[in-house]
Queue: 4 jobs
Job 1
Amino acid sequence: MSHSGNGASADPTLGTHGNGAGEEPPLRLGGMALRNGLLIHGPRAWAAAARTRDGRIEVSSGPKPVFSRGRLGSTPLIRGPLRLAEAFAVVPLARRRLPAARLPIEDPRVLVVGFVTAAVSGAIRRQGRTTTSRGGATLREGVIAILGVLPAAAALRDRDLAAYHGVEHKAIGAYERHSLDPADAPKEHERCGSNLIVPLLVLSVAGQLVTERLFRHPGPLPRAVAGVASVSGAVELFAYAERRPGSTLGRAIHGIGHQIQRLFSTREPTPEQLEVGSAALREILRAEAELGGRVQP
């Protein structure tokens, strides 16, 4: 379904989904900031809202591809990449159904940074093939891992994108807190992907070093397998921190992620940007109800 409208103010009733005894728990929602709006996905549906150049809010939604059903969806180290694949599979669907939406990568600066960092990373790895010391190899892989973060950092220099990242957290946080006005919700969220950054950097370096120990001259395939394994491990650490936020590891992961959000990756949105977030939230709740998605998988 796709429709457009003029938008509405942040709606404090958006989160009234069941905070009484015997009522269903809130849906588990995730999202991605757009350059001019917000994409939200739930267990069975996705919804997106974007502000057009003439000031209107356009909204679209549809069924979400699901890859993590059954046994694979509950298997450690497999479930994480499958759920990430679900979230990424939604992006081209939303872009096609909502032409007004602008993705984070739709910026020449981000594309240039991506190409440059890929070229530099490849050059560093080729130059480092003769490195035999463990310290030198670790430094090399650490630099390559950090370079991999630069395209996202370049995208978030866009104030609107960082603000819509804040909209994402406020809209979902308001819904999860039952009828809290999104304007009053914090712009940081405990399930933000920023919590993946440090685990992923550490495991990426470790995975590539192990690959070099196992293969004298590892090619693209072994390195890709190591990369997928690193993502799997990072997602499991992310999930552990969510299940046990009071543990030492949980506090460390959430603490670093919170500071990344607070200082760098989010900004306080304007009321007009919150309108877009409210529109996306209303649409995902409508789409999930239509698909029977109030029961989490």
Job 2
Amino acid sequence: MSLGSAGAADPLKVGFIYVGPISDHGWSYQHEVGRQMVNQTFGDSVTTSYVENVAEGADAERVIDQLAAAGSKLIFTTSFGFMNPTLRVAQRYPDVKFEHATGYKRDANVATYSARFYEGRYVVGQIVGRLTKSNIIGYVGSHPIPEVYQGINAFTIALRRVNPNAEVRVIWVNSWYDPAREAEAAKALMDQGADVILQHTDSPAPMQAAAERGAWAVGQSSDMTRFGPQNHITSIVDDWGPYYVSRVKAVMDGTWTATDVWGGFSASMLHLAPYNPKIGTELIALGEMTQKSIEDGSLHPFQGPFKNQDGKLVVGEGERLTDEQILRMDYYVEGVQGRPPR
């Protein structure tokens, strides 16, 4: 366990739990950047701590309990599989505030928060549809949960609106962070003809594998430019710092409530890393225009018409999926090859 800054009398203790290492250069790294912003903002008024590499399940419950027992009054649990362990510990510590990332279960002292990662995937889909030469796109998936399906489907919908001949092939690695398996999946997809690699995993291994083969790639959670400068299109970057600062402040001033926050571009909870100039000014302008349309609400990534992979209309012309429908997503849209794992 690593400790943040301390010094003031009775500082607020805030704990963070990460599913991977803070050196993953992706998901856990970005949450760690957010923790550091809390330290910088509040100084000696707050003491933060974190535990990294926490497995989802029983180990998570043990670690969350340890943080609460050690006096943390606000605990951020930052992976989907921490949901039920967080709720169980919260019931034992009603005076502690808990925040769970990407989950959907709340309680009087448990809030939830996430970002609309799928908005970034839609923007990227528009670009990749015009960039691909093979019309085969590889996608390295972590776990088959709604958050990951949302990204695959939003990307595919956008991809095929500009290039109806393009298809997406997914390999699931059943892990958030496993560089070796992520790299193997990316290589297998390129062996199948993919000339662009996307990922919903936490290490830069797929980006590095793409760079070695001369394929394009899109980074995940953090700006991964440095892992493939010539091949990096952009990255979908999470920005947790402002949210963490606001929630710590809410605990300190007594206004904290068990809210559910799901923010996208317009809430500044995610942004796109600088585009690679090699993709050209036309595609960069397309990406910027698409993002602006999502931000102002004139475009929704899940507005119809589009079908699932069985050819059944999911939503019609002029209609949009509701948040509830998006949060339950467990299927592939038309254009994704293979069947969803069950």
Job 3
Amino acid sequence: MTVSTPLKPFAIAAAAALLLAGAAHAAAPQVKTQAPGFHRLMVGDFEVTALSDGTVALPVDKILTNTTPAKVAAAFKKAGLALPAETSVNGYLINTGAKLVLVDTGAAGLFGPTLGNLLANLKAAGYEPEQVDEIYITHMHPDHVGGLMAGDKLVFPNAVVRADQKDVDFWLSKKNFAAAPESAKGFFQGAMASLNPYVDAGKFKPFDGDTELVPGIRSHAAHGHTAGHNTYIVESQGQKLVMWGDLMHVAAVQFADPKVTIQFDTDPKAAAAARQAAYAEAAKSGYLVAGAHLSFPGIGRVRAEGKGYAWMPLNYSGMK
């Protein structure tokens, strides 16, 4: 069929209108926000939800120790990453079917304006803070405990908070606070402000090292980063996920060279030994691990590679 001559101007005008409409849509303002930061997977019968507290820029070339800034910069260049390092802060929610357990609570307002999103992401994931039964703290640094409080209110009013007694003795000690250098006093203040209200409310229950906390979840002493740093082991139906907390911080550097430490370590030598042992076991056994500062959702596996190790992030999968 041939379009008659009188219709040709109409067709040209319609095509021009479509092009203009396309150009107008392309000029819409950029949104510049992500989707809510949660990611779910099943570990046996347990539902595990990774929760993002946000990211924070860290000058890791200046704060990593037992290495040099030049080596750190070279590792970041090899990985195609920029400095300062955009570092994830992650927490993990475990629904065992009988208990709802949160591992670490994010920073709230204790670590700068780019963090503090864990509570909003917990709600976006379909849960309310009042539903949380237990909270397990890997250690009492501010980016792990700050989310316990909102001003003078308990964020998780029905939860029992648990942490290693050695971290309690160190971070909640007024004597240690008084003796600490000014640069470290904020860490003590953050721990005290976050934990003491739960202590006062009778909602804090410390443990000592390796302990079964609820069926299917147990703590494992991995001291060094702090005096009472622990990992948490989740097992169900033959599947296993180990939540590392701050066993390591910088994937681009510390997988290839586990000896590299960080200024935040209380005992760098012990921290490096705990990291080496955890890497070796994870690589040998092939189970999943989750890291508080691995790029969100921070879950994957470890494999041996040369004299060090390599990180294999979990493949994205829709829930079944």
Job 4
Amino acid sequence: MDLGLAGRPALVAAASKGLGKACARSLAREGAPVAICARDRGALETTRDELVEETGGTVVAVSADVSREEDAVRFVREGAEALGGCQILVPNAGGPPFGRIEDLADEDWRAALELNLFSTLRMAREAIPRMRQAGYGRIVVMSSIAVKQPLADLVLSNSIRAAVIGWARTLADEVGPDAITVNAVMPGRVLTDRVRSLLERGASAAGRSVQEQAEAEAGSVPLRRLGDPGEVGDVVAFLASERASYMTGCFIQVDGGMYRGLL
């Protein structure tokens, strides 16, 4: 299937590793020129070189910390300038810290808002005029299964990501007349550094090895395995494509069946 992504400039935040890197790879493989950002310049440039070698495409690296207002805006501006526009945006950022409600201070909540909510809306606000000008726009928010099925000791993520989904659903209505779609993917247990840290915490609490913890987690998933980041990246690429032109306001689980609800 031709996704119609060739030549469509795409910006993927927090893409030096994990899900962001997987999204950038999937888009680049489909022929989209991609701009990526991350805080660690060395890791970012290494990823850029890897993706160029793997895909033969155009990949631009912009060093930025999207939890900072100026960096979130600058990433979109510099990325769009380097690629000749912005038709696809994947707002992404690392997850906020672990913690229980009683242990978290106001400062923790403010930092989580900057990291996951404000970064997303700032990047989108900067990208949308460029999408209108191009007559093509796809915003694919990187979220979490925690939106539908809250996870223990992750109240910051559970709460802030739910707020982002409320924002995204409202934005889908507002920009739909401009042929801009807004969707989100909600990964479950996908093997990223974040999930590995969750496995380590679980293993420590249960008094077993990380491998045993991973096997136990996989056993609770209907597909009986943990996910690969590339499986999330490919869903993002589809949502960014011409083939998904009639999908907006959709929030799609990529979780191997982990979520048990009906809606």
